[in-house]
């Protein structure tokens, strides 16, 4: 079972990732843009491409799903981390990071991975 500390470690392992407060939660950002948030539960909200969000939600019902309303339609996705292994969360977190990172940074990261 993943903990909030695991989520934090995975997010901050990404290039130029920073942790900052965001209302009543914690956000993880790259170049000032939020790619993930988390609260007090082992759950993350990730900024995914809407098509990836749909595919992942269908493949992992109850674990991955859109945030309700407008935010969900724009790709914000809830991930129940207690039901994932670290490798799966790491892959999802990388997808969110690449989605918001500046193109040159994302390209360098993808080519180096």
TrEMBL record:
User: Which UniProt key words apply to this protein?
Assistant: DNA-binding
Q: Keyword Isomerase on this protein? A: no
GO molecular function annotations of the record: DNA binding
Q: Which organism is it from?
A: Phenylobacterium glaciei
Put simply, this protein is called MmcQ/YjbR family DNA-binding protein
């Amino acid at each position: 079972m993943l903990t909030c500390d695991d989520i934090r470690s995975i997010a901050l392992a990404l290039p130029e990732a920073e942790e900052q407060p965001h209302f009543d939660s914690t956000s993880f950002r790259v170049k000032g843009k939020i790619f993930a948030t988390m609260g007090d539960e082992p759950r993350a909200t990730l900024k995914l491409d809407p098509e990836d969000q749909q595919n992942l939600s269908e493949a992992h019902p109850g674990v991955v799903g859109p945030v309700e309303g407008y935010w969900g339609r724009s790709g914000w996705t809830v991930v129940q981390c207690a039901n994932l292994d670290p490798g799966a969360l790491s892959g999802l977190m990388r997808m969110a990071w690449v989605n918001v990172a500046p193109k040159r940074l994302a390209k360098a990261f993808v080519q180096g991975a």
